[in-house]
Known about the structure:
Layout: H1 3-17, E1 23-24, H2 25-33, H3 40-56, E2 62-64, E3 78-80, H4 95-106, H5 114-126, E4 139-142, H6 148-159, E5 163-168, E6 175-188, E7 191-198, E8 203-208, E9 217-218, H7 232-237, E10 245-252, H8 257-262, E11 280-287, H9 290-299, E12 304-308, H10 310-328, H11 350-366, E13 370-371, H12 372-378, H13 383-394, E14 408-412, E15 415-420, H14 432-444, H15 449-452, H16 456-468, H17 470-473, E16 478-479, H18 488-500, E17 502-510, E18 515-529, E19 532-539, E20 544-549, E21 553-562, E22 585-591, H19 598-601, E23 606-609, E24 615-621, H20 627-633, E25 638-642, H21 644-659
Parallel strand pairs: 4-18, 6-16
Antiparallel strand pairs: 1-3, 2-3, 5-6, 5-9, 6-7, 7-8, 10-11, 10-12, 13-15, 14-15, 17-18, 17-21, 18-19, 19-20, 22-24, 22-25, 23-24
Helix pairs in contact: 1-11, 4-14, 4-16, 5-11, 5-14, 9-10, 9-20, 10-21, 14-16, 20-21
Amino acid sequence: xxxxxxxxxxxxxxxxxxxxxxxxxxxxxxxxxxxxxxxxxxxxxxxxxxxxxxxxxxxxxxxxxxxxxxxxxxxxxxxxxxxxxxxxxxxxxxxxxxxxxxxxxxxxxxxxxxxxxxxxxxxxxxxxxxxxxxxxxxxxxxxxxxxxxxxxxxxxxxxxxxxxxxxxxxxxxxxxxxxxxxxxxxxxxxxxxxxxxxxxxxxxxxxxxxxxxxxxxxxxxxxxxxxxxxxxxxxxxxxxxxxxxxxxxxxxxxxxxxxxxxxxxxxxxxxxxxxxxxxxxxxxxxxxxxxxxxxxxxxxxxxxxxxxxxxxxxxxxxxxxxxxxxxxxxxxxxxxxxxxxxxxxxxxxxxxxxxxxxxxxxxxxxxxxxxxxxxxxxxxxxxxxxxxxxxxxxxxxxxxxxxxxxxxxxxxxxxxxxxxxxxxxxxxxxxxxxxxxxxxxxxxxxxxxxxxxxxxxxxxxxxxxxxxxxxxxxxxxxxxxxxxxxxxxxxxxxxxxxxxxxxxxxxxxxxxxxxxxxxxxxxxxxxxxxxxxxxxxxxxxxxxxxxxxxxxxxxxxxxxxxxxxxxxxxxxxxxxxxxxxxxxxxxxxxxxxxxxxxxxxxxxxxxxxxxxxxxxxxxxxxxxxxxxxxxxxxxxxxxxxxxxxxxxxxxxxxxxxxxxxxx
Length: 663
């Protein structure tokens, strides 16, 4: 979709919105398209594509005919867009409802649907439906990114395109190619599932995203129709939870304190298959999903060996083998563009630009005189990108192009005003992505007692369902994870300490250092990824900001001291899981297509695309000692390129681990 096509679609939209009786195709061809070269058939195909594009942006093109005439006759058929049919209905929200809605939108900050949630909130703001709201102190729940596969599945599902991928079958233990019509995505038992129609088996099937062994390919030349009234949460409720099993693992002496704490028993060293030397302990570890535990055990490298069951040992070995193969493959040339944003951007397209411009006009109508930098910040673009949008808008208008028939936007002393909006003054109705982002987010917040107990969560959900209409019904295709904390006592203690400005003393297990420590901290903010909760605090032992997982706290109590002047939260909202420091190590990594989302998860500073969908990324790490664990855990999705000594260390770690399985 070229820039010229973007301008053409905008002018076509304005023409069809501002006609009561409709315009014939010949009039549109002459006055909007200015097309004199193509054949009638070629122009007809282009016009149909443009109508389809407008439908994707929320505008239904109506066909109008005089009585007795056929719709097959282009000479008599007229086209228009109803002024009300495509507009977002008025939504008036209270302050309490806005608080809940903002939290629901921010759930997706670094996950799929994050941009859709922002677009939906801008539409509500442009419609004047948002009131002043104050967020709860110290609570920032978020949904953990489910990987690149989730992003691609969302794309295929909402465009109703089948997808293909390689899947590790649970029944056979073999990798198989699957072609699936994606009906819904949801989280159950801490795992993300795809529910859809498996074309190869001609039946409905459930697929765990943790068992995907390749990137997802969207088959955009094909289409399907999902079942009416599909609700993925109801489907996932029918899934039984996997039974608890026991794994026998040999652990190097004095290592892996966290794994040892979960062991239910320690068999004697004389047990069959025990390691021959005395430097190992055999543990019995409970688990439900071999792939989930296999990912964790692979990260421990040569410090652990799975004795039984064979399925778990195979899962660990497969990840280590994939990591070893990826690390040994030829390295690509490292070359970054001269100017790259601090975070990996989603590739901007002309569709994005047109969608943004359609939001921009009503936003400016309801926010007259804003500084141009504020407008750019609100839309997450640079000033230059915004000025490019404005230049296209002021040259767009009704077919004849007279001064009064054009959009009138001016920016004087960098303050933007609009005086002629040509019926683009109200935001377009929610898209499927936008409705799903907000409504799924609201449903997910039911897991937080302090929000679920009030009436605001229920009332704002009812209002948004009414505003979303048919698109809101499709929100049943996505079900978010549980966000309630496992330890509500710790959560309450920390929230109270934040509110009172008091220090806490904690006994904390550090997985990276594999050790326990005693710390005095100034608590600042609470946040979560799914139901894993963290709190940001100034640590007096480390002399800086740190993030602590609530499920790794062994002891927690107020120490009767007030927080110090050094206690200042990190800039930005929401809080980042990783706080960069000046002495961090800058590491260059290569990400396979299925691991491309790690660039966002770890706040990559620079990225460069690779042929085939992968990336090269520069990421800052405060501690490099755990990088071999990071590479092994992701099993072929990431490798270290630079510094060379870190790349060698990771490769040696993986080879040493693989050798324990005869690899």
